[in-house]
């Protein structure tokens, strides 16, 4: 078992570094050091930050070795310097950042080879190595967002996702009421905010079979959705007026057609694809307009994990098997969501599709700790973000790697955020006659 865990950690670290290399080698040094949006760091900051976190946790903490570059810790402290100000810092140049990250990785692989994967919560089941692989993949998704924000010709390529091949799916699925197990106490690389497993009771509700599509969202736009205050939370109404927002980010109207910019390519908005780059306020407004609502976080997880036959919660909608290409659109395999209705082999026991991958899905819930939460291994990963300021997103996107995506995985962001790969699906309470 120990060697299997060691291999899993090695594979996760190797895959993350290969993706980091792809994201940072496809543009020149000027593009790496430029800030493409004040919402994001320069790509070279992410590259060195990845190496610095790996050094701090695996070289210094797990291995107990002397710091390699203690003088840069402050520069790459995400809590000390807001993203908008990071270009003003004394950042490592691209070549130096690559050498530093590579040097750290070489030492860490030796640490992995020599470390018993037991004897304390940080190393049990290789947790610290899994945490760092997840951290790197999370920054890879952040860098992918930066690539979407940058102007100029396309720098990344990927094959198209598979066609949906689905007809006659019901618009919504009934999720029965009752208890289910939310969160986890057994997933070895789960992060602190996913823990512990606990019972939740959810009344019966209906949830969209697939995420809301661009075509459905266009109907909201054409019906005056952005000009009717009835559908908007007060803060959202203020936001769209203050910033002249009248469509998802990266969309523009050209005559009678909607176009979008996607990784340097301008193309017609595909009607059958899940809508992307909408804020929580936009998702909430659409749901109200449609006479529905956003699902709560607990509802989303029950729809994704609950098996009504056994009564247990699965790791993923399709079961306990790790994600494969047949199950979900993950890992930057494609540079867009797959059409709504894709991945029938990834659907939940109740028949809900695309709960994992394609687009992060906004929920109605604030980001709060579970009963019995304990910060580990540091408060700044989750605890400092708890409260009403952040909304929970679930499920992952096409830009999320499988190592950082589970049925229990929780993402969170400010409700104004639009640059992230976020969409949504809607829900409604079950009427008395629908609950059985």
From TrEMBL:
Catalyzes the oxidative sulfurization of hercynine (N-alpha,N-alpha,N-alpha-trimethyl-L-histidine) into hercynyl-gamma-L-glutamyl-L-cysteine sulfoxide, a step in the biosynthesis pathway of ergothioneine. It comes from Streptomyces maoxianensis. Fe cation binds at residues 49, 135, 139. Keywords: Iron, Metal-binding, Monooxygenase, Oxidoreductase. It catalyses: gamma-L-glutamyl-L-cysteine + hercynine + O2 = gamma-L-glutamyl-hercynylcysteine S-oxide + H2O. This is Hercynine oxygenase. Belongs to the EgtB family. HAMAP family: EgtB (MF_02035). It is an enzyme of class 1 (oxidoreductase). Residues 170-428 form the Sulfatase-modifying factor enzyme-like domain. Residues 300-312 have a biased composition (Basic and acidic residues). Its EC number is 1.14.99.50.
């Amino acid at each position: 078992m120990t060697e299997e865990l060691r291999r899993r950690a090695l594979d996760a670290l190797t895959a993350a570094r290969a993706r980091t290399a792809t994201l940072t080698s496809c543009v020149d040094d000027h593009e790496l050091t430029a800030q493409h949006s004040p919402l994001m760091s320069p790509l070279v900051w992410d590259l060195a930050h990845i190496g610095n976190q790996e050094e701090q946790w695996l070289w210094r903490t797990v291995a107990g070795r002397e710091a390699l570059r203690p003088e840069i810790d402050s520069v790459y402290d995400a809590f000390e310097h807001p993203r908008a100000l990071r270009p003003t810092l004394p950042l490592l140049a691209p070549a130096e950042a690559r050498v530093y990250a590579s040097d750290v990785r070489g030492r860490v692989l030796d640490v992995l080879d020599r470390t018993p994967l037991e004897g304390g919560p940080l190393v049990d089941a290789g947790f610290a190595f899994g945490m760092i692989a997840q951290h790197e993949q999370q920054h890879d998704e952040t860098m992918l967002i930066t690539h979407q924000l940058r102007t100029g010709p396309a720098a990344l390529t990927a094959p198209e996702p598979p066609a949906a091949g689905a007809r006659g799916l019901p618009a919504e699925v009934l999720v029965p009421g009752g208890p289910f197990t939310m969160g986890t106490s057994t997933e070895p690389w789960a992060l602190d905010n996913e823990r512990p497993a606990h019972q939740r009771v959810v009344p019966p509700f209906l949830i969209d079979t697939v995420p809301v599509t661009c075509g459905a969202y266009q109907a909201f736009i054409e019906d005056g959705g952005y000009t009717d205050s009835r559908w908007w939370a007060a803060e959202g109404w203020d936001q769209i007026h203050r910033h002249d927002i009248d469509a998802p980010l990266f969309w523009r109207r050209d005559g009678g057609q909607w176009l979008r910019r996607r990784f340097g390519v301008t193309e017609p908005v595909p009607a059958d694809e899940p809508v992307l780059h909408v804020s929580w306020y936009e998702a909430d407004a659409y749901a109200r307009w449609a006479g529905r609502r956003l699902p709560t976080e607990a509802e989303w997880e029950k729809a994704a994990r609950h098996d009504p036959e056994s009564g247990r919660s699965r790791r993923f909608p399709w079961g306990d098997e790790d994600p494969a290409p047949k199950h979900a659109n993950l890992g930057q395999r494609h540079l867009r969501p797959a059409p709504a209705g894709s991945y029938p082999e990834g659907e939940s026991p109740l028949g809900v599709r695309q709960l994992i991958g394609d687009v992060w899905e906004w929920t109605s819930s604030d980001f709060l700790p579970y009963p019995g939460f304990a910060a580990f291994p540091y408060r700044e990963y989750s605890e400092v973000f708890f409260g009403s300021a952040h909304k929970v997103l679930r499920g992952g996107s096409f830009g999320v790697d499988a190592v950082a995506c589970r049925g229990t995985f929780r993402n969170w962001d400010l409700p104004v955020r639009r640059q992230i790969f976020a969409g949504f699906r809607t829900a409604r309470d079950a009427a008395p006659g629908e609950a059985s």
